[in-house]
Amino acid sequence: MGHVEWTEFARVERMPAAGEIVHAEGVLQEPAGGGAVVARQLALLCGRCELFTALGRDDLGARAERRLAELGVDVHAVRAGSTRRAWVHVDDTGERTITVLGDKLLPHGPLPLDGYDAAVFVAGDVEALRSSRRARFLAATPRELATLGEGAVPLDLLVGSANDPAERYDGSLDAALVVRTEGPRGVDAGGTHFSAPAPPGPAVDSYGAGDSFAAALCFALARGDELEAAMALALRAGASVVTAMGPYEKQLRL
């Protein structure tokens, strides 16, 4: 469950200073956002993933649904308002800086999730969250901490960025395993540190690395991998994404 944003990526030499104009060396457009990136990574690993989301009643919503289908994601979308857009500057170090335009459209529950092997809650309302707990394994991100607190369901996995203020976690949830990513410094998983591997090529764009890491970790733990093996797979997934523009070209395949 999660949001989708129609996203334009622009590679620039550096982030512009106030009042400055910079010229993009390359531009890419994709339906992205946490829900889309997680779903596509899971589809590559599992062979199938269903994305419960919300898209606008507009051309961008239709384009996003078609493109996600091309990427192998089964999309279940409610239609409301206008599709949220995002603009991403990617600098010469591969760091991404994101501007979002419009409100985040959220999937609403209840949802038919009985019998699913795993679910990842990226965004949605409280009933969508409670529906996702019907899956055997449930992962989530602290981006929607207020909803997770209100829903009060136990989580098998909570994954967030230690560097992103929007993903700060206060320890208030019933989560079996809490994982905090720290970019190239590695990952903390329940107090155990795991070093990040070097990317398998030059760093191009970090967009989607964290969500791909979280999706791969959920996949591995849900299928029964021990933590060390699951973390190795997830770290490979995150490292691979940064070697190409946009989130999808280098997502990990099995």
Task: Describe it.
With 254 residues, the protein is of the alpha/beta class. It has a single domain, classed as Ribokinase (UDP-N-acetylmuramoyl-L-alanine:D-glutamate ligase). It is 27% helix and 24% strand. It is built from six helices and twelve strands. It has helices at residues 34-46, 59-70, 126-132, 145-151, 209-222, 227-241, and strands spanning 5-11, 26-32, 50-55, 74-79, 85-90, 96-101, 118-121, 137-140, 157-161, 178-181, 187-189, 192-194. The protein has a six-stranded mixed β-sheet, with helices on both faces. Strand 3 (50-55), helix 2 (59-70) and strand 4 (74-79) form a beta-alpha-beta unit. Helix 1 packs across helix 5 (209-222), helix 3 crosses helix 4 and helix 5 packs antiparallel against helix 6 (227-241). The longest helix is centred in the last third of the chain and has 15 residues, at 227-241. It is globular and about 50 Å long. It starts with a strand and ends in a 13-residue tail after the last helix. The mean pLDDT is 95.
Shape annotation? globular
Oligomer: single chain
Question: How does CATH name the architecture?
Answer: 3-Layer(aba) Sandwich
Tally of domains? 1
The CATH topology annotation reads as UDP-N-acetylmuramoyl-L-alanine:D-glutamate ligase
Q: Let me know the number of strands.
A: 12
Helix content: 25-40%
Category from helices, strands and their pairing: alpha/beta
CATH class: Alpha Beta
Question: What portion of the residues fall into strands of 2 or more residues?
Answer: 15-25%
In CATH, the homologous superfamily goes by the name Ribokinase
- What's the helix-strand series? EEHEHEEEEHEHEEEEHH
Kindly report the spatial arrangement of strands forming the biggest sheet.
Answer: 7-8-9-10-11-12
Radius of gyration, taken over Cα atoms and rounded to an integer in Å: 17 Å
The average pLDDT value, as a whole number, equals: 95
